[in-house]
Predict the structure.
Amino acid sequence: PSIGDFQNAISALPNEDIILLPNNKNILLAAKQAAEHAGKDKRVHVVPSYFLPQGIAAMFEYSNLCDTGECELHEVAEAMTSALSHIVTCEITYATRNVALDDLHVEAGQIIGLINDNLVTAGDDMKLVTADLLVKANIDRHERITVYFGSDSNQREAEQLVAYLQTLHPKLEFEIIDGGQSLYPYIISVE
């Protein structure tokens, strides 16, 4: 969305207090600029989420704080922003071109794994690439793994993948959610 798209959405809301979650580093600046120009009758904070799992973690924080109905906008925005640092985002997708990065050589069409948008692994087997990705994300230091499967995958494939990952990491809690995202068969939240 553009700055204008954000401004139109802000104006259309009846709320005076608004929190924006961009969930994408490429639109963070547009969200911040729209918040700065929201007008006197709107108080807009931007929680600088780069990835969908961060946005979801921030929303859980919001829900935890605001269940009582008494929320101070600034405090809520601070707590939501703090929640972002507790999430490692892992993404599985396909390489669109050949690339050589340090010791990693990727061919177009291969499965690739990213940690917080950094390419860290590649291969031809979805299970092996995902397992390597999660090891590189230090998942054994965490408690919970949420696997969002996309439109290029399905529930059965996600269950098979998670069953394999659970054999490698039996102490971790795994959850599967239909994320419906395109381009990424799996987005994985490590908490």
